[in-house]
Amino acid sequence: MQQVIGAAADAEELESLVRDVLRELPGLPALDAAAYYTVDRRAGIARLEQGEGLPDAFWEQVREIQLTAAPYDNAFIHRQPVFAEDFSAAAPRHAAAGGFASLACAPVVARDDVVGLLCVYTRQPHEWGPADQVVVPALGRELGAAMARVAAERQLRERRLPIQDLFDSVGE
Predict the structure, then answer these.
(1) Which residue range is the domain that position 112 belongs to?
(2) Interatomic CA distance for residues 133 and 108, integer angstroms
């Protein structure tokens, strides 16, 4: 978890933030792959933006998720994590596409809205214990907070540029 927090704290751009966090997740015990979905409320879907350890078939089959589709609706609509010990019972097509046995997802909330979904997968059946049920949602919260920070810093840089140009022109 320390590596994930470090990756989130060091990020300066949204794309590298998500990539660096996902890169660290399969290194956590029992996790084999990770994915990040970006929410598109107008279309009513979430799109697979980045992943680590995902097979090509998964990218092809699970590129989009309906926001109202079980079991993901719990995260997108109710802002609750999803833990599926038997992924094939919860989402058979998705489990088969990746060859995954278990799934855990956490909503990523930034600026008081669910902006994404962080998912982790295991190839062997995994009973999500109490520690997992604390860590996975914490990862989603950490990613959301880091995304909000990176976006705020980018806005600040963009606002500073015109003022810096003005000061530079006055100094000439």
Answers:
(1) 2-171
(2) 15
Q: Tell whether the torsion through CA atoms of 71, 74, 77 and 79 is positive or negative.
A: negative
Judged by DSSP in three states, 51 sits in strand
3-state secondary structure of 142: helix
Give the CATH number, domain containing residue 126: 3.30.450.40
**Are 84 and 102 contacting, i.e. CB atoms less than 8 angstroms apart?**
yes
Phi, psi of 45 (to 5 degrees): -135, 170
Alpha helix positions (H), the chain: 2-10, 14-24, 56-61, 73-76, 87-90, 92-98, 130-171
Residues forming beta bridges with residue 39, ordered by sequence position: 46
Question: Collapsing DSSP states into helix, strand and coil, what is residue 56?
Answer: helix
Three-class secondary structure of residue 41 per DSSP? coil
Burial of 12 (0-12, 13-18, 19+ CB in 10 A): exposed
Taking the model in full, what pTM does it have? 0.83
98: enclosing H helix or E strand: helix 92-98
Give pLDDT tens digits for 36-78.
Answer: 999 999 999 999 999 999 999 999 999 999 999 999 999 999 9
